[in-house]
Amino acid sequence: MDEARAPRRGVSPRLWLAGGWLLLALLAAIFAPLVAPQDPLAQDLMLERLPPFWMSGAEPGYWLGTDSLGRDLLSRLIFGGRIAFVVAFAAAIAACVVGSTLGLISGYFGGWADRIISRIVDVWMAFPPVLFAILLVAVLGTGLSSVIIAIAVIDWTRFCRVIRAETMGQSRMDYVENARIAGYGRIGIMLREVLPNVVPSIVALLSLEMGIAVIVEAILSFVNLSISTDDPTWGGIIAEGRLSIHQAWWVLVFPLITLILTVLSFSQFGEALKTRFDPVLR
Amino acid sequence: MLLQRFLIRLLTMLVTLFGVAVVVFVVIRVAPGDPIAMMLPPGATDADIARLRALYGLDKTIVQQFFIWLSGVVRGDFGTSISLRQDVLGLVFNRLPATLELAIVALVMAVAMGGTTAILGARERGTAVEAGIDIASGAALSIPDFLWGLVLILLFGVLVPIFDISGRVSPQLDLPFVTQFYLAESILRLRFDLTWDLLKHMLMPAVALALPLAAIISQLLKQSLKEVLDLDYVVLARVKGFSETQVILREALKNAALPTLTLIGVQFTFLIGGTVIVERLFSYEGLGNMAIDAVINRDLPLIQGIVLVFALLFVLINLTVDMMYALLNPRLRHG
């Protein structure tokens, strides 16, 4: 490896920034009832469309302003984070377990297993993912578990394709052959020898997938198909902001910034983790 | 050799489409929730339900139902939309051109943006310009089209309102079009006033769709260009006195483009998938926007039709790219 490409020792600044934002957002979501300055559902028509704190006409205690029903934007964002993170973790892990398992089997055993799994992946890739998600949630009924199931059902192929390719590469390596000569069984080799070597990719994909899950949840609540309409969600706030964009831009700007920071952080975090865990790069 | 490859791909494509048909059918029929209950307004009587069940053949087994539906689809009969009470195929073909025009404009923009930045980055390799391009493409890639759409709405719809952020064309305009390919027809009819109006509506959603793809093209093409630029024949061209830009455009580009071309094919299907939500965001009257309405209205025949048309589009693009790759790659051409 040439000098210029050698990875830096220690934790990179982008890992700090990404991890810092995610930790902050996660803690705020967990302790939402303690952190949120207002009740996220409380409507007050006297306080409708208050601007954020630095503008004239702002009210103390309503830092980021209010929406058209007078609900506090910051509190809604903090509570919306609860749903975003639950969906991110649950859906990404479910997609990861299903996709990685099938990818490992497909890549390591090859033959019929590979042919069948690859054909299923082809079929899945022929669906427009957002439409598929909307359809699944419409069929399963709105609610947290439907959203999680829908995302996992759609995005397992992402893991399957990458892990299949990586496993195929690893299976051709000498250490796998050595393990076979040493008399290990095929499943034993797959789990003990191949799996640890594809873990860096799985971890990176998992982090990326959490970001994607947050977006899909936002899209679903944007089209009003996610959780019940009462609970604040980032997508739901965005849908509201899109409608009142000319009267109250902040209702769109702040959830948008929140979403962008979260998605960027998940993808940067994944990249950084991959470099850190990859035995070759390290 | 090529023909054989084509036939195998065609067969795989049919299997994939059959798979899609099965999955859509099963998702809609087997998942909890009675499709008839979805079709009827609340308060329908049991007699109503039974009558509708028989009408739609839902009293038969699911396998029978599937083949009845499939034999209709093969004959071009996708059924009748429940919410719009029109032929599904007609509705789909009415909306498909709007989506295709949007997707193609987005693709052209992605290739233009990605190609330009790749060539610029390769020419200025190792400088701050390349580093800047890397950062920009990294951001463009990490942020999905849905969020780009919102950013663009804020920037060019509200902050500096120079583009339209809603609809396909200004409603007050008198449209002389006979097809649904408005943009293409406006150009052919030399009605550039209408072309401009259409583009003003299309630009923002197209940019939102194009940015992530532009970033991918930029990164991959720049990488390939940098590899080619060290090869002997390129060095020779440089010695002959061509400028670095000429070297890239005349010598390096055609040899570096093949991997990018293959990638564009797959990524183009992702872009088309993105039109669903981006059309919704910009109230653009395309297939994706209609699909979301169909789901919200529980219009099963329409959903099935739209999903199948999207799937057909996806596999056709993949088939085309595969064939183009085989034609352009000398190793496969002579193999």
From TrEMBL, chain A:
List where in the cell it is found: Cell membrane
Q: Which GO terms describe its biological process?
A: peptide transport; protein transport; transmembrane transport
> Membrane topology per the record?
Multi-pass membrane protein
The UniProt transmembrane annotation reads 15-36, 83-110, 130-154, 202-227, 247-266
**Annotated ABC transmembrane type-1 domain residues:** 81-270
Judging by the UniProt lineage, the source's domain of life is Bacteria
Q: What is its main location?
A: membrane
Task: Kindly give the CDD domains that the UniProt entry links to this protein.
Answer: TM_PBP2
- Which PROSITE patterns did the record assign? ABC_TM1
- Give the UniProt keywords, A-Z: Cell membrane, Membrane, Peptide transport, Protein transport, Transmembrane, Transmembrane helix, Transport
Q: Which GO terms describe its cellular component?
A: plasma membrane
Concerning PANTHER family, the annotation shows: D,D-DIPEPTIDE TRANSPORT SYSTEM PERMEASE PROTEIN DDPC-RELATED, OLIGOPEPTIDE TRANSPORT SYSTEM PERMEASE PROTEIN APPC
Q: Which family does it belong to?
A: Belongs to the binding-protein-dependent transport system permease family.
The name of this protein is Peptide/nickel transport system permease protein
Q: Which organism is it from?
A: Mesorhizobium sangaii
TrEMBL record, chain B:
Where is this protein localized, as stated in its record?
Cell membrane
Select a single GO molecular function from the record's annotations and give it. Answer: dipeptide transmembrane transporter activity
Q: Which InterPro entries match?
A: BPD_transp_1_N, MetI-like, MetI-like_sf
Arranged from A to Z, the UniProt key words for this protein are: Cell membrane, Membrane, Transmembrane, Transmembrane helix, Transport
Q: Which GO terms describe its cellular component?
A: plasma membrane
Topological type in the membrane: Multi-pass membrane protein
All residue ranges annotated as the ABC transmembrane type-1 domain in the record: 96-325
User: Does this UniProt record's set of keywords contain Cell cycle?
Assistant: no
Q: Which Gene3D superfamilies match?
A: MetI-like (1.10.3720.10)
Q: Which residues cross the membrane?
A: 7-31, 102-122, 143-163, 202-221, 256-282, 302-328
Instruction: Please give the PANTHER family that the UniProt record associates with this protein.
Output: DIPEPTIDE TRANSPORT SYSTEM PERMEASE PROTEIN DPPB-RELATED (PTHR43163)
Q: What family does this belong to?
A: Belongs to the binding-protein-dependent transport system permease family.
* Designated name of the protein: Peptide/nickel transport system permease protein
